């Protein structure tokens, strides 16, 4: 299995506190990750399609997607990603405060790669981020 030296992660998160926790967790990581943060679904799709201000954006190796976003919600963005043949192979991990069965079920039905409920405790949140990156960048084989 080939391994990249630097992994690009797109974080779609409108909460600055949660985005900061992800950034801090990734700094303490065993993997070298470059975090790209956007605050809503429209900007996420611009990033993924290299549109508007994101003309030089890299193709992310992993997307961390919140469900509760301004404008289009995470389910709608996930559906759009999975419906686009140029983007559909990118792993998408739902990272949400919602642990509701209906949200989890809908996310998987729309093609989520996994679903992680955000822990409220900072240490548990950091551990969850490390688990996600260890799996995707250490265990799983990413699409080329």
Automatic annotation (TrEMBL):
Keyword Phosphoprotein: yes
Gene Ontology biological-process annotations: phosphorelay signal transduction system
UniProt superkingdom: Bacteria
CDD domains documented for this protein: REC_Rcp-like
Domain named Response regulatory: residues: 8-133
Positions carrying 4-aspartylphosphate: 66
Coiled-coil regions listed in the entry: none
Protein name: CheY-like receiver
